Amino acid sequence: MNNKDFENLTNKFNNYISSYFGRDADTDYYLNLKKEHTFNVLLHAKRISEAFESSSSLHELVPYAALLHDIGRFPQYFNYKTFCDADSEDHGLLSCKIVENEKLLTFSNEDHQKAVLHAILYHNKMEYPVSNYLENTLLNAVRDADKLDIFRVACEHLDPDKTRSLNTHLPDTGIVDPELVKLLLQGKQICYTKRKSYDDMKITMLNWIQDLNFPYSFEHVKTMNYINIISKSIKGKFKYSEVSDYLNGLVERGSKGVVSVL
C-alpha cells in the first residue's frame, strides 16, 4: 500500500467518526480529545517507525495500526458516556470489529492484515500473547505511541480548576495505596482493578514507563518531564524520591537503548 492508500484510509476514518459528533457539547468535547489523541499517536508512531528500515513491512504498517487503534472510542463514548472499558466495552475489541465491519483494511497480504488487527486488539491489554516478530513489534510500537500521548492528555487535565477532569470513576481521596508503589518499584505490572483513588491512577500511569520499548519513547518522556509533572500532582504520601530516582534511571537507560522488552 502507498501514500494514496493511507490518505484514503484517513478520509474513511474521518468520515466514520464524524457521525458521532454534533449531539451535544459535552460529547463533542471528549470526542475531540480522542480525535486529537489519534493523530498525536500517529505522529509518535511514525517517529518510532523511523527505527525500522524504510522499505520494511513494519515501517509501512505502523501508521495503519496507529490511526485505527482507538476508532472504537467514538461509539463507546457516544453510547456509554464513558471511556472506562469496565463500564462499557473493551475498546480494543470494539475497534477491531469496526475495522472489519467497515472493511477499512484492504491489504492483499494476510499476515499484514493480521498484524494490524493484532496491534489494535491488544494495544490496551495488560497481558497479551507472544506472537511473531512482526506482530510483536508492531504492537509495541502502537502501545508506546499510545502511552506517550496519554501522558500528554493526562498532564493537561491534572488541574480540575483549569480544565475538565478526565477522572470520572475514581475518588480523589488523596490516598496512595503503598502496595501499588511497591509493585512499581519491583518492576511489576499494576492491575487496573487494584486502583482505588485518583492518586492510584497516577501511580499506575507512572508504572507504564516500565512498559515502554523504544529509545524514542523514553527520550520523549524525559524531554516532556512527565515523571516530575505526574509525581508532583499526587496528593497522597508515597516514596516520591525513590520512585522518581527509579523511573528517571530507567528512562535514562531506555533513551540510550539499554532497556528493551522486544
CATH architecture field of the largest domain: Orthogonal Bundle
Domain count: 2
CATH topology of the largest domain: Hypothetical protein af1432
Number of strands: 0
Description:
α5 packs antiparallel against α6. The relative contact order is 0.10. The mean pLDDT is 93. This protein folds into two domains: 149 residues, Hypothetical protein af1432, CATH 1.10.3210; 86 residues, no CATH class. 62% of the residues lie in helices and 0% in strands. With 262 residues, it is mainly α.
Please describe the topology of this protein.
Layout: H1 3-18, H2 25-49, H3 57-68, H4 73-80, H5 91-101, H6 110-122, H7 133-156, H8 178-185, H9 198-208, H10 215-224, H11 226-233, H12 240-255
Helix pairs in contact: 1-3, 2-3, 2-4, 2-7, 3-6, 3-7, 5-6, 6-7, 9-11, 10-12, 11-12
Output the keywords.
mainly alpha, Hypothetical protein af1432, 12 helices
In short:
The chain has helices at residues 3-18, 25-49, 57-68, 73-80, 91-101, 110-122, 133-156, 178-185, 198-208, 215-224, 226-233, 240-255. The protein is mainly α and 262 residues long.
